[in-house]
Amino acid sequence: MIKSLEDLKKTFKNKKVFVTGHTGFKGSWLCIFLDLLGAKVTGYALKPKGKINFFNLAGINKIIARSIIGDVRDYSKLKKSITNCRPDFIVHMAAQSIVRYSYVNPKLTYETNTLGTLNILNIIYELNFIKNVLIITTDKVYENMNNRFSYKESSRLGGLDPYSNSKACAELISKSYNNSFFKKNKIFLATARSGNIIGGGDFSKDRIVPDFFRSFRSRKIFLRSPNSIRPWQHVIEPLYGYILLLLKLNNKEKFSNQSWNFGPNNQSKHKSVLDIINLINKEFNNNIKIIKNKKNYAQTYLETKFLTLNSLKAKKILKWKTKYNIKDVIKLTSNWQKNFLEGCDMLKFSRKQILDYFN
Length: 359
Prior knowledge:
The protein is an alpha/beta fold. Helices cover 46% and strands 16% of the residues. The protein is built from 16 helices and 15 strands. α2 packs across α16 (346-358), α5 crosses α7 (106-127) and α15 (326-341) packs antiparallel against α16.
């Protein structure tokens, strides 16, 4: 059963939350979510990418306490920002998140995803007044054997490509700091791994859903890996999971030093890239021609063909489970895009989608 917004406000109202990566797609949604709960958000991230982006469209800088443009690799600026905020919670989301780009610039990927996480952890260790920390990694942290197996939190970490591997490294570093320093200092930290996120406001390059919407002009879309299976879910679902986890983590050792999966239900688990595009295309009257790649893109870039998550732990302990099936996810995403194209107030519309989730 989904908690009410009023129940969540009891914990988060007027609490200070430091969010890295707040200018991104997922970070912007989290800012809106936390604002609805009455939290005071300080964001730290690079400038939003692209001329059109969710952060600017929704005016996120106007609904949060402070927006700091900075790089997680900049240790001194990051530490000063966290010190000035004195947050009750830290949510670390900043990342280089595109698998294909990690092949173009692996050094930047490792510096951002691995060393950026190390910076956050070491600053928390040095300051020693922050008590609740959530590190967001990815569903791709597991050593993937391309079989029909849903990965549990206890599954072996791995990652062949630089992006996946850099995130697995972030998990290992978090575990080390937890065991070496945070336990004895009563700092409570958890890591979260979510599935492939779909939702309105994603204008990223090299991501399948925004690529589809960009194809409106050319009326055709090229699918690099049409048969790859991913754990698709709407962006609101894992964000609600993160908030539940923060709620449980709040100064409680019992929930610290653990990892948590947030993946879709069985109905959404085994959908391919082609399935997703066909469903979205149907929402727009099948106006886009789909061209399938004849080469094995997944093998070229060592990208897994099959990936699903086991979220039984979150379901049992956090009482979290996905509310939307894959058709709901596509409908919500398509409706957001339609309202955007019609020039609607996208902050208002995005808030409505979060409020509808609780209804």
